[in-house]
Amino acid sequence: LAEDVRLALDAAGMFTWESDLRAGTIRWSANAAALLGLPGDALPATAAGSLDFLAADEAARLKAELAAVFARGGSHYRA
Length: 79
What we know:
This protein is mainly alpha-helical. The protein is built from 4 helices and 2 strands; from the N terminus they run αββααα. It has helices at residues 3-12, 32-36, 47-50, 56-71, and strands at 17-20, 25-28. A hairpin with a 4-residue loop joins β1 and β2 (25-28). The longest helix is centred in the last third of the chain and has 16 residues, at 56-71. It is globular and about 40 Å long. 0% of the residues are buried.
């Protein structure tokens, strides 16, 4: 992230993540673990593992939305 974005996220108490769902990877911003109250190595290293942070109904909804994106040949999903 650009330094100004990182500073804004820190000031707002927010973090970011980016998933490549086809590859199954996820990248977290440097402040994510601290804001979640976790040690850095506790963040999931895979996109599928990140669903553990969601309530079961939200995880199911997200899986359905992603399946619809992939079914129509899409490659991006933003929420």
